[in-house]
Design brief:
The protein has 258 residues and is of the alpha/beta class. It has a single domain (6-251), classed as Metal-dependent hydrolases (TIM Barrel, Alpha-Beta Barrel), CATH 3.20.20.140. It is built from ten helices and eight strands. The protein has an eight-stranded parallel sheet with strand order 1-2-3-4-5-6-7-8, sandwiched between helices. Strand 1, helix 1 (18-30) and strand 2 form a beta-alpha-beta unit. Bound molecules: zinc ion. Zinc ion binds at residues 9, 11, 39, 102, 165, 216.
Length: 258
């Protein structure tokens, strides 16, 4: 299997305009980025993500494969509409490679300002149950949760893959099973990001083929084409992002051979 450059975490539906999104995807294609995982933060992102994945399937995204994830981010835990769960199931049924995300826990100041711990926990648990029942991969956001995030995921054995985004927290050993992937952007890998680089180096020593680059577009003004540089930085830190990308692509069935 050839090595693949993927952008494991972006929010393409936050692009300021359709023209800008086209330009971003064209640059990603020129940089040989094969696929971009685009995650929802809230209900309003679901329909645009569906349209984007359809455009991708119809070959209208410059040859870059768009993989959609639908879910409710922990920051919106307190404001999720009561019917979100039925609507999420409906939305997922209409996507071709439906991941559940971005879901998770955020006990940092930003997360707790948006939603209390208890509502975050309830929302996360409900989405984990859904992912487990429907055997879907998940895209996970973690911030200052200690071991709680991994402990919450552990019982859900039927979730086939877990994509942990941007976390520089130490990862408990049981999270190092092959179903976990960890994605990092230049916010963690750029020169001078001492804490982030150290976290990647520690993780790369244990699971070099489970570390993939992300842009987290549009955060920090980074875009999917930038993952090429991030992949090089990850490699310097001991990871094998090309091989990880190939494994990722296989697990997520990004380029089915049929
Ligand atoms: Zn995100």
């Amino acid at each position: 299997m050839p090595h693949l450059t993927i952008d494991a975490h972006a929010h393409l539906t936050d692009a300021p305009s359709a023209a800008e999104l086209d330009a971003v995807l064209t640059r990603a294609a020129s940089a040989s980025v094969a696929a971009v995982v685009t995650a929802a933060a809230r209900r309003g992102d679901w329909e645009p993500i569906k349209l984007l994945t359809e455009a991708s399937a119809a070959g209208r995204t410059s040859g870059v494969r768009i993989v959609g994830a639908l879910g409710v981010h922990p920051w919106y835990a307190a404001t999720a509409a009561p019917v979100w769960e039925d609507e999420l199931q409906e939305g997922l049924a209409r996507l071709d490679t439906p991941l559940i995300g971005e879901i998770g826990l955020d006990f940092g100041p930003k997360g707790l300002a948006a939603a209390p711990k208890e509502s975050q926990r309830e929302l996360f648990a409900a989405q984990l149950r859904l992912a487990d029942e429907t055997r879907r991969p998940i895209v996970v956001h973690a911030c200052r949760t200690g071991g709680e995030l991994f402990a919450a995921i552990r019982p859900f054995r039927r979730i086939p893959a877990v994509l942990v985004h941007g976390s520089v927290e130490s990862v408990p050993r049981e999270a190092l099973s092959a179903r976990f992937f960890f994605s990092f952007s230049a916010a963690q890998t750029a020169p001078g990001q001492r804490r982030g680089r150290e976290a990647v180096r520690r993780l790369a020593a244990l699971v070099p083929e489970q570390i993939v680059p992300e842009s987290d577009y549009p955060a920090g003004g980074r875009e999917p084409s930038a993952v090429v540089e991030t992949a090089a930085a990850l490699e310097e830190l001991g990871a094998r992002p090309g091989a990880a990308g190939a494994r990722f692509s296989e697990i997520f069935d990004l380029f089915p051979s049929t």
